Model the fold of this input.
Amino acid sequence: MKYGWVALSSLLAFVAAAHAADPELFLLPLMKDTVASQAQMLWDVGNKALDDDGNASSAKLTAADWTKLAGAAQKMKAAAASIANAPRVVVAPAGMTLQDEGAPGQATARQIQAFIDDNPKDFADHARALADVSDGFLRAAASKDATALGDASARLDEVCEACHVRYWYPDQPK
Ligand code: HEC
Done:
């Protein structure tokens, strides 16, 4: 009986460990379904904050806007962390093709996979930059600070672009 319990508890520990870290994270569905849509929400609120002179003003935003911003930033941060912490990032599940796959300057899924596998640490650093900028949005939302929101919106653009230029369309004329 005693041994039975030992075996059971080590089995449970094994199951828990297997759950803690998914061995593979699929990038494409995460980009499409989470990162792109949450970024759109973050940028929408950022744009709404702009007054007629193009300056960020908290007077343009309601409490609901700030709540929406915080929610999107939280989801973005979680997505970024899941990329940064994944034991292995896999570009796409079998049968799923990239947007505009084969367009000039754009790497194929196989090439992107090779770029990531060659440099998983650098890829994770780009994902951490996405988590950092998500924190910037969270801070802006917590203090209802429109200037900080404007800064985070501009930085978000750069963070997406920096990773895409390096891993998605490295041969695009600059
Ligand atoms: C850590 C690197 C990284 C960051 C940061 C990143 N992306 Fe991506 N993204 C990629 C790679 C690599 C691809 C190409 C492979 C693919 O489509 O999954 C991609 C593809 C995409 C696609 C196309 C998906 C498809 O259908 O093929 C969209 C949309 C996208 N990213 C949006 C964004 C936005 C918006 C941001 C910033 C908020 C962002 N990404 C930040 C790496 C990144």
About this structure: The pocket of heme C is lined by residues 27-28, 31-32, 35-36, 39, 83, 91, 98-99, 112, 123, 126-127, 130, 156, 159-160, 163-164, 167-168 (CB under 6 Å). Strands lie at 25-26, 89-90.
